[in-house]
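ok trying again, last paste got cut off:
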Amino acid sequence: MKIYTKSGDKGKTSLLSGERVKKSDIRINAYGTIDELNSFIGFLNALEPAERHKVFLKEIQNKLFNLGSLLAVRKEVSFKIPEITEDDILLLENEIDNLNKDIPELKEFIIPGGDSVSAQCHICRSVCRRAERLVVEISEKESVNDLVVKFLNRLSDYLFVLARKNTYEKHLSETVWKP
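nice, full thing came through this time. structure:
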């Protein structure tokens, strides 16, 4: 099977629901950003965070594929689309709480950085926030599962706390913003 189809050569692509749309369509932009986030999380995992974080990050990557599938559908389809559930949100919240237990309370804004793992967490967080903004933009015009925005919001929080936890575990200093 050839990887190229040539069907997108004129700037259009298909949603999972079958309709052809411009590659500049907001849904394509949103799930393309989710794909970008997934790739950045893959790179984060390649930087060798602590093993327990690697396992959780792989689970997040699978959830991001589910989320992308939800965004790639504009109308009803005859097949089952993977979902994002309240349990997925709870999973993120529980992990945030676990990571946050031992690190110092946040009292100032932190400049993104640290070692390569923490810096990559911050890149992932900012791409996640962009994806969230795009999904909110879609939701202003079309129906979007509310849990998609909620998941992305929690995921960006998780990535922020993961950066802090990594910095703390490695006995590094956070750089605070000095206005």
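cool. The two ends are 56 Å apart (CA to CA). The chain is about 60% helix and 5% strand.
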